[in-house]
Design brief:
There is one protein chain. The protein is mainly beta. The protein has two domains: 29 residues; 153 residues, Porin (Beta Barrel). It has one helix and ten strands; from the N terminus they run αββββββββββ. The strands form two sheets. The chain has an eight-stranded antiparallel beta barrel with strand order 1-2-3-4-5-6-7-10. The protein has a two-stranded antiparallel ribbon with strand order 8-9.
């Protein structure tokens, strides 16, 4: 009976110490990030602010907003590229351990100055990414993302049956995006 009571007292006294260690580790992690992104969030280049909310040692929520530049990349086109200012934002969940995380969530980008279609001004998209988040402030963070789509419009010379007509085509593929920044 005494051994059972002693074991229960020791077990209860050890559990709060373990829980406090996890809270202290999460509280000292930097929760703010500023990133420079290339080819991510429907932008060719952009700058973003992100806030990370650590829920558990292996799970976090993020909210991100920023601004960037986009061009429709008309390769071999007769008319010039159309350029837009972008305003990307997203919400995501991080799963991982230590500094390495898997990110999944949903994002969207507003294209300012886009006049071709009202529905294409706001582009929602799913997020899938690898994240490297530092344990201490003033260190580098990294995000490598894979968008599920990217469209490029091209004009091609059609010599067969079209008597030399220029035909517009759209190609869809994925290009990985990268964001590098500082955590504070």
């Amino acid at each position: 009976m005494r051994k059972t009571i002693l074991f229960a007292v020791l077990l209860i006294s050890v559990m709060p110490v373990y829980g406090q260690d996890n809270d202290i580790a999460d509280a000292t992690r930097p929760a703010n990030n500023i990133n420079l992104s290339l080819l991510g969030d429907v932008s060719l280049i952009g700058i973003n602010y992100e806030r990370v909310f650590f829920l558990r040692p292996h799970m976090a929520l993020t909210a991100r907003a920023g601004t960037g530049f986009f061009s429709d990349l008309r390769i071999f086109a007769s008319d010039p590229d159309k350029r837009y200012v972008t305003f990307p934002h997203h919400f995501s969940v991080l799963f991982g351990r230590g500094r390495h995380f898997f990110e999944t969530g949903i994002g969207a980008t507003f294209l300012a100055g886009y006049t071709e279609s009202a529905s294409a001004k706001y582009i929602p998209y799913p997020l899938v990414a690898y994240r490297f988040l530092p344990l201490k402030a003033q260190n580098v963070n990294l995000r490598v993302s894979l968008p599920l789509f990217m469209q490029i419009k091209t004009d091609r010379w059609n010599s067969g049956g079209g008597f030399g007509k220029v035909v517009a085509r759209t190609s869809t593929f994925s290009i990985p995006g990268i964001a590098l920044g500082i955590s504070f």
